[in-house]
Amino acid sequence: PAHAAPSGNRDVIVHLFQWRWKSIADECRTTLGPHGFGAVQVSPPQEHVVLPAEDYPWWQDYQPVSYKLDQTRRGSRADFIDMVNTCREAGVKIYVDAVINHMTGTGSAGAGPGSAGSSYSKYDYPGIYQSQDFNDCRRDITNWNDKWEVQHCELVGLADLKTSSPYVQDRIAAYLNELIDLGVAGFRIDAAKHIPEGDLQAILSRLKNVHPAWGGGKPYTFQEVIADSTISTGSYTHLGSVTEFQYHRDISHAFANGNIAHLTGLGSGLTPSDKAVVFVVNHDTQRYEPILTHTDGARYDLAQKFMLAHPYGTPKVMSSYTWSGDDKAGPPMHSDGTTRPTDCSADRWLCEHRAVAGMVGFHNAVAGQGIGSAVTDGNGRLAFARGSAGYAAFNATNTAWTRTFTTSLPDGVYCDVANGTFVDGVCDGPSYQVSGGKFTATVPANGAVALHVEAPG
Ligand code: LAG
Ligand code: CA
To answer: Which residue out of 61, 97, 224, 296 is catalytically annotated?
Structure first.
């Protein structure tokens, strides 16, 4: 049912993890729209638990208390609506992180009030869900080889919704449809593999069409499926896109190890490209199983640039904040636990997406062109063409790589969008002259050079 692809070529997703709605609206207007980003994955907007005793961890969001959109740490319902509209006017879709497998757990606050003031206790959410709306297996998932258990018992102790119940399906669909009515264009389905496929299908089949600006079809959905030998991404691809965690592991190890020469074939054998949402890192892996993250500096930015240059999958760029010590640490916040506005040059906001923004234009300009004419130099260097629309070179070594590349880009001067950006006809990076089908470049250590037809120098 819900599987319309993002419209046009603007399909790149950026995850503005924990950003306030107002800050996202500003970023859509000033940065995301002009650079051609397609969509923002926003943090879960529904009412959630509030845990002052644990210093307001980021993961409050993943314990829903109700589907009210007011008074989360990121702003009001009115702020949310303003963000959706402002981003749409900038050509940027909003994808909501939909937490629909479960409600709250038993943490430092086992009972209400939630962030919008609602009272609750585990298995009891007045006016929404009561005990009969939860699965009967009221214990943690222990045997991850048992598909029934993975889908009907509790993920880290979170009250598992009885998604087989038509009432629960209706209630979840009502929440998602309210978001569609507000202009939301798609959803990340949190913990999708913990929801039986048939139940998820029943929920998604109840969804309305999205805003006409986004084509008016069913919402774009990507399901978080951490595939293993018990549950594969293929169990969910008939319902929409899926997150491809093997891609995350493959690209991260390759760049971490400086072993990138073989990456032209990245993604082969994995989920079909048109169903795969791909990423170098997400908010969980950067904490719990880091391979390559913002702490790795240039090599990490290089991997995100490569993802934007390579044809496999729908890229999702991470943009987060630093933390020290405990991995539950929340974003920069006020003393009451509400999040501070993003300032990319202050606090702990990283704004990683800005470092790779020029490559979004490359991704959009070369859409539909295959990868070809690969050139390597040892294990750590790889350059390739995207038809005659673009050419990119990647250097995952600690020494610069100078050579003359052969390209089918038309002769002319091109903006290097790996080291600068091209917005409103202005190139703010280096430029290169292609003549006679060749150009000579010095690809920086742990850096890239990328030229495409829509960015003259
Ligand atoms: C996800 N995808 O399937 C999210 O990407 C992931 O970030 C969520 O876990 C998880 N599923 C549930 O939506 C996060 C934190 C957990 C946290 C959970 C609920 O990674 O650490 O659990 O959100 O807030 C916390 C405590 C647990 C406790 C649980 C219930 O860490 O020890 O059992 O709350 O009280
Ligand atoms: Ca479940």
So the answer is: 224
**Cβ atoms of 288 and 328 closer than 8 Å:** no
Largest CA distance in the chain: 72
pLDDT in tens, 78-99: 999 999 999 999 999 999 999 9
- Which of 45, 43, 40, 41 lies closest to 92, judged by CA? 40
CA distance 113 to 158: 17
131 CB near ligand 1 (under 6 Å):
no
CA of 63 from ligand 1 middle (Å) equals 8
The per-residue pLDDT for range 316-369, each reduced to its tens digit, is 999 999 999 899 999 999 999 999 999 999 899 999 999 999 999 999 999 999
Q: For 200-229, b where at least 16 C-beta lie within 10 A, e where not — what string?
A: bbbbbebbeebbeebbeebbbbbbbbbbee
CATH number at residue 438: 2.60.40.1180
- Total structural domains within the chain: 2
CATH number (domain holding residue 272)? 3.20.20.80
- Domain carrying residue 392: 371-452
